[in-house]
Amino acid sequence: MHCADLDQRVVAILPPFNVVHAQVIRRGKEPDILSDTDVETVYSGASNPNDPVLSQPVRHSMNNTGIIFKSNFWDINPRTGNTFGFDLMDPFYPAGVLASLGYNQPGVIDTGLPVPDPAQLPALVADQQDMPGKTDPYNVNAPKAFKRYDRNLPFFSNFAFGYTQKEMNWFAADGIPVPFSDDVGRENSYPLMRVQARAVAGNSLGEIAGTVLASVDTVLPISIEADCKACHTSTVDLGNAEAACDPAFDSGCPAGGGSKRSDTPFEVVLAGDDPDPGSTQLQSEEWAADSNIVRLHDAKHGTRLAEQTPVMCQSCHYTPALDLAQSGPGNDNGKDQLNHKSMSNVMHSFHGQFKDLFPDMPAPGSNQQARLDVLDQTCYGCHPGKRTRCLRGAMFNRGVLCQDCHGGMEQVGNDFSRDVSPTRPGNFIVKGDFYTNPATPRVPWANVPLCQSCHTGDANSNLAGTAGALVSPADSNGKTDGIRLLQAWRSGDTAAKPIVASNRRFAEEQVSDANGTRQVLYRLSKGHEGIFCEACHGSTHAIWPDANPDANDNVAASQLQGHTGKIVECSTCHTGDLGVNLEGPHGMHPVGDAGVKFAEGGHEDFAENKLQACAACHGAKGQGTVLSRMAATRTFNVEDKGTVTLQKDALVSCSVCHENPY
């Protein structure tokens, strides 16, 4: 999920910036991953005729004169004469880089920020990704090329927690400035992009250059629900006035107004004070919240931010998310990060102490509606969000919520910057053993929950019975589970440290060296024959399927394999029957059209000698488990039994088709 501030005039947290990666696979008996020597990839806008947003009213993006508002990131800042985007982002590049690209001038609208090629760092070789309609917005949808092909991908490799992923073999389009609304003004957090593979000149495929070889529509999520107005606006602007109390409308204010939570006086701004008459109501509310934040910050800390707008918070409070050069915290080019705690720390730790506003999440398995209410008060109160609801897909379908993976706000905030202060500048705790050393704090965006933390193994070997593990009693269809976990960290662990599985069947890749063992991020991990995990399972917060069959998140899987859900059809990449083996992803046997021989009797001799291998998914007694769930309804011809149909979501046991050999 990528967030971007709706209004960039005063304070910003994130710029318009989205990322899409693509691998191109040539189908065959033995499929190939194609490189940039044979193909290029391009992206353009796409649509889904069943998109749920089509039934929603136009709101948030249209002002009272009927003009659609998408962003003011590229508007001119009257205080400096630069674009707001330049003033916000210039500190995050070496001095002069953004100006040399003209990013401080009009005319860069729909142009992405420059993104360095990680493989060439510290040399700054950067590319920019544009929107497909840049040359003629609302009229043109011109495919744009992915600017980079990554063979090896360094991820903060100069730091103890970092590593280099070898043989990534994906095309990368980093920094596409996707807007939050469509061209008629509907807010759409899940717009589609069409990704196409085209033959390049001199390819070895025998194809004419420019020939489209493959196409898929994928979601590039974007949300404007990264704001602070719930507490930093007056009740007249629908806030709670805790940090922006106006005596004309609110009670309990400091004299003259200000933050009643900290008893800090300052002059509170209202949405109605917005100097831009063309602003939308939501934009004006965010402008008011941002204005109140800088005034409160100035009053409490003696800063003069209100005179220096727009302010990018991370110029003082480091985050790896904006450290595109992977250089770590610094004080160069106007930054002041060495003297301050990270953005994650100051946001989560400070606000997490106010339990009346941000209550602790009840444990998984307790009343789910109460848990959803807490989610709205905590995570969704500040970032996407009560409208966006970025956690969707398989985990949400089962009832897993943000804190079940990440821990509570104070746990998330207790990070590697916890010992940094103006008297202890640069005292960051940077180690490579976060996942194995209880004392090592997390690095935001780099040390995160893992798939293996809940998917700790198979039916033969898992961590479901170990101390502190919260076991899932049933799946989202009510079928008995008992294998997977509902929480990525052990109950009682005050650090909410992700569980690391000893059975690596469903685990991400890992890198081990003198710095320790680092678990590779899911979004950077590869699995079966070098295919990256997200290609088959979907993106982190939208693991396929989305419960809404019409959701844009389901489009890609449906196009690739003919139905929603994670990619399980071997015929997506393979041609022909794959025979009898367990050489598929996670040690699976062939499935679907490519697995007919295996399913219709071919596995008999195999199973007689390898019942324990079958039990890994089908259970110790061949009874069927959640790991043997049918992804689609299928019909088989079974010896001595005739036609057998297995329904979608059924747990496949041996006795369905034949005598149970266990």
Topology:
Blueprint (H helix, E strand, L loop, with lengths): L1 E2 L7 E2 L5 E5 L1 E3 L5 E3 L4 E8 L37 H6 L7 H4 L14 E2 L9 E2 L16 E2 L2 E3 L2 E3 L7 E3 L4 E7 L15 E8 L12 E8 L2 E2 L5 H4 L25 E2 L4 E2 L15 H21 L9 E2 L30 H10 L15 H10 L1 H4 L11 H4 L4 H5 L2 H5 L96 E4 L2 E4 L13 H5 L17 H7 L34 H14 L1 H8 L15 E5 L3 E5 L16
Parallel strand pairs: 1-16, 2-19
Antiparallel strand pairs: 3-13, 4-5, 6-9, 6-14, 7-8, 10-13, 11-12, 14-15, 17-18, 20-21, 22-23
Q: What does it look like?
A:
By secondary structure, the protein is of the alpha+beta class. The protein is built from 14 helices and 23 strands. It has helices at 84-89, 97-100, 229-232, 281-301, 343-352, 368-377, 379-382, 394-397, 402-406, 409-413, 533-537, 555-561, 596-609, 611-618, and strands at residues 2-3, 11-12, 18-22, 24-26, 32-34, 39-46, 115-116, 126-127, 144-145, 148-150, 153-155, 163-165, 170-176, 192-199, 212-219, 222-223, 258-259, 264-265, 311-312, 510-513, 516-519, 634-638, 642-646. The chain has a four-stranded antiparallel β-sheet with strand order 9-6-14-15. Strands 3-13-10 form a three-stranded antiparallel β-sheet, with no helix packed on it. It is globular and about 85 Å long. The two termini are 45 Å apart.
